Amino acid sequence: MLERMSSGLKLLLIVPHPDDEVYGAAGTLMTHLAAGEPCGLITLTRGEAGRTLGLCDSPQALARMREAELAACLDVIGLTRHPGSVFEHHHFPDKYLQDQPLAPLVETAREAMVRLRPDTVLTFPPNGSNGHPDHVTTWRAVKAAWDALPPGERPALWYYASDVPPEHEALRAQWLPPNVRRDVSAHVTRKLQAIACHRTQALSTVDFIRKFPERITQETFHAVGAD
Questions:
Q1: Packing angle between helix 22-34 and helix 188-196, nearest 10 degrees?
Q2: GO molecular function: any one (predicted)?
Q3: I want to staple 171 with a disulfide (CB 3.0 to 4.6 A). Which of 138, 166, 183, 196 is the partner?
């Protein structure tokens, strides 16, 4: 039997890559942590298959750099300094989650939900927000883990969500609009600082701000079953 935390987390993020925590949820994490509410982050890969921007010369070096970037980001957010909060880093293969057996990913998510007892779990939506196969596979694993829990023991399930439907028809067909909005403007300076910790992801930062500037100060989510 799994050992359960005596008091659960307020919010648990389960995402595939270092940096997936920061663009859409850094302000929400800061809000909970400032209120004394512990939060958690589970990152499934080390991000070793991402772009290097010339900052390193091998997947192994990129993995180490992205781990250091994530540590710096979480320090700015305050998660790794907050009593009771949790950060766990797994080493599933970056960019190839869809080629892995799904069962270990599902079990990773299920075990975390049982042990950490979050009020809410946050992950990517069915279309992965941008169709990234790691995002989509993470959604499949988290949703399967959530479905496997008895209804009375399930946390609330939230997905990242944007008011702007995707341009690609296949992604738009699975788009879920936001039904939860969080004003995080009080944390915008620290949020930008946390984003900037992910130096190897500078192009992703530019793309996010260009496409979704409003989501720097307002974080939006789709709560499953809230409609």
A1: 130
A2: hydrolase activity, acting on carbon-nitrogen (but not peptide) bonds, in linear amides
A3: 166
Q: How far is 223 from 39, CA to CA, in rounded Å?
A: 18
- Provide DSSP, 38-105: -EEEEEEE--TTS--TTS-SSHHHHHHHHHHHHHHHHHHHTGGGSTT-EEEEEEEPTT-GGGS-HHHH
Taking only the tens place, the pLDDT of each residue in 51-96 is 999 999 999 999 999 999 999 999 999 999 999 999 999 999 999 9
Whole-model pTM over 0.90: yes
The domain 11-223 is placed in CATH, from the list 3.40.50.10320, 1.20.1410.10, 3.40.1550.10, 3.40.50.300, at: 3.40.50.10320
Domain boundaries, the chain: 11-223
DSSP code of residue 35: T
Q: Which of 15, 216, 198 is nearest to 97 (CA)?
A: 15
CB-based contact 155:115 (threshold 8 Å):
no
Region of residue 117 (phi > 0: left; psi between -120 and 50: alpha; otherwise: beta): left
Q: Which amino acid is at 40?
A: G
